[in-house]
Amino acid sequence: MSGSSTSLKTYALTRLALVVPMVLILLTLVFLLMRVAPGNPIAAALGGHVAPSVIKQITHQLGYDKPLYVQYGNYLWGILHGNLGKTITDRRPVSSIIVENGGATLELTVAAGLVAIVVGVVVGLLAGRFRDSWIDVGGRLFGIVAYAMPVFFLGFLGQLLFGVWLGWLPTSGQASPITQAFLPIHTHILIIDAIWAHNWGALWDVIKHLILPATTLGIVIGGVFIRLVRVNVIRSLKDDYVEAARARGIGERSVVYRHAFRNALVPVVTIVGLQMALLLGGAILTEETFNWPGIGSTLVTYLENRDYAGVQGIVVVFALAVVVASLVIDFVNAFVDPRIRY
Amino acid sequence: MAVATATPRGIRRRLVGPGLRRLWSPVAETQGLARVMFVTGATITLFFLVLAFFARWIAPYGFTQYQAHGHRFAQLAHPSAHHLMGTTVESDDVLSRVVWGAQTELKVVFLALVLSLLAGVPLGLVSGYFSGWLDRILVLVMDALFAFPPLLLAIVIAFLLGSTVSSGVVTAAIAITATYVPQYFRVVRNHVISVREETYVEAARALGARPFTIISRYVFFNVVQNVPVIATLNAADAILTLAGLGFLGYGVQPTQAAEWGYDVQRALSDATNGIWWTGLFPGLAIVLLVAGLTLLGEGLNETLNPVLRRRRFGRIDFGPIAPGEEERT
């Protein structure tokens, strides 16, 4: 509001300070959700396979027999030190899940995000520019169908068409077994690893595996972008500065492409940020559809095994990812747009 | 020279029309795309409502029925005269599962919408009207819930409920509710905050009306106008969430009801063998219903939202201005 007195730095610091209660509440919510359910989580995960005495011992080992507030304290303390706990079923540290499976999820979501931005911005701009024309009708229809399309159904169609009938693309996994066996792993983002190793055959293999999942997720997320970009364009084409530009005798092309589109695209940064949650949610389904070895499909495995610690750890990771993403987006926005200040 | 080819009849009718006609008039006045969208969306939604209500008579078989007249259906049979959409690997009739699925989806979504309205609207009203420490806490909690990927929240809740309560329509509905309460809360609360300062609310307060009376009589009806649009669009979203839950094996159990998302998940393994009918039809049903509800919601939005609305006034054509005519008007 009071533009001159507050700087970008104060904004950044205030925004950063506001993250703390947000994260605390998120963590508390996750903890409450996971512990409010009655029953012993250890028994739920291992029940039937292990003797009751062993369950009791593991329960004690993992601290599940302590009072709830002690557990809560330990949980927060652990997270503060970067320790997200270990899964119950396979005793895997959650941090290693982030490192090993996070790369695959990052690869998928970044690629899908790029597809979504390209699809959303191009179709949205055209539909908004030529409002009520057949381009608009087509673009909006595409947007609605893309939005209405469950990720996994589009994946099913893609697998059927490009995987089975045309045989062009692989339908499952992040790379073929031979690539996975011989590619030295540094980052777990296989594209980067392949470039790192100068292994172009592996790079092509990895890209081929990525095309179908990334396009599937990207188109579905892009469907949401189309609507928002379109509305933005329509709004900015009605704005005073566009009218003013026209009045100054600037050509219609220039008015639309240089004045209206540019301003219509500024909020797209925010839009992309807001869709982070959607992108991550979609990633869970996409990974499950294409057997993509990311965090989402790992989560589904732990859900199936009733591994409360695993589920809790991954949910915390997802929540933190969304918070961090929205923080970054707000910073970028504040940097771009001087009107955004506290 | 100046000729107005149409009178703005819409305005007069809107002012005069009482009750239902007044509710309908904004719809009747819309034109072009908004109207097409509204009508298409309403038709599709109605179609699925009919399927859901009359599933018992429309579906040729039950949703887990794998035999009739004493002999078992063929497994993975192509669509044919006997089974219009083919059969699954369990010999279920795909058409029947699609029809019964409509009932499941609409049941869950209806229940979820009612639950989230019942929770979200009152919370938003109270929080926005009183705006004390309660408001601050609620806003923080709702914002935190909002930060979760909706599907993830629904999965976790379905997972927790599934391990204690048996999973079914109600479980799925509760899981979906949790993802929409923050949204209603936010919209209603923000609207209440602006309405609270209006003169008529102040007048009511000056007359000594109690907060409950003010909220229920003055604030509520002014705030609730946004809800139909959001509810319709949320219904579309809720179908996707439910299908996502079903796809992952949560929410409605396959033995209790037919669920489209679950069916597509089962069909993924068929796809590698080139079998398309087990996944295509339930998937198309999801797309069609979600698109229908979205069209209905967007059509409603363009009709009810004055910023987007373009009424059918008819073209007012003033004709070309003859030289020297400007001065005479």
First-residue to last-residue Cα separation of chain B = 11 Å
Helix content of chain B: 55-70%
**Could you tell me the number of beta strands of chain A?**
0
Evaluate the radius of gyration of chain B. Answer: 25 Å
The coarse overall form of chain A would be globular
Residue-averaged pLDDT of chain A: 81
Share of residues in strands of chain B: under 5%
What about the largest sheet of chain A? none
Helix content of chain A: over 70%
The chain-level structural class of chain A is mainly alpha
Number of helices of chain A: 15
The Cα radius of gyration of chain A reads 24 Å
> What kind of assembly state do the chains in view correspond to?
heterodimer
Give the biggest sheet of chain B. 2 strands, antiparallel
Poorly predicted sequence stretches spanning 5 or more consecutive residues of chain A:
1-5
> What's the total count of β strands of chain B?
4
Provide mean pLDDT of chain B, rounded.
77
Query: What is the CATH C level class of chain B, in words?
Result: Mainly Alpha
Shape of chain B: elongated
Give a summary of the structure in a few sentences.
The complex is a heterodimer of chains A (about 350) and B (about 325). Chain A is mainly alpha-helical and about 350 residues long.
Task: Tell me what you see in this structure.
The complex is a heterodimer of chains A (342) and B (329). In chain A, helix 5 packs across helix 10 and helix 10 packs across helix 12. Chain A is 76% helix and 0% strand. The N terminus of chain A is likely disordered. The N and C termini of chain A lie close together (6 Å). Chain A is built from 15 helices and no strands. With 342 residues, chain A is mostly helical. Chain A is globular, with a radius of gyration of 24 Å. Chain B is an all-alpha fold and 329 residues long. Chain B has a single domain, classed as Orthogonal Bundle (MetI-like fold). Chain B is 67% helix and 2% strand. Chain B contains 13 helices and four strands. In chain B, the strands form two sheets. A two-stranded antiparallel ribbon of chain B has the order 1-4. The longest helix of chain B is centred in the middle third of the chain and has 37 residues. Chain B starts with a strand and ends in a 12-residue tail after the last strand. Chains A and B meet through helix 1, helix 6, helix 7, helix 13 and helix 14 of A and helix 6, helix 7, helix 11, helix 12 and helix 13 of B.
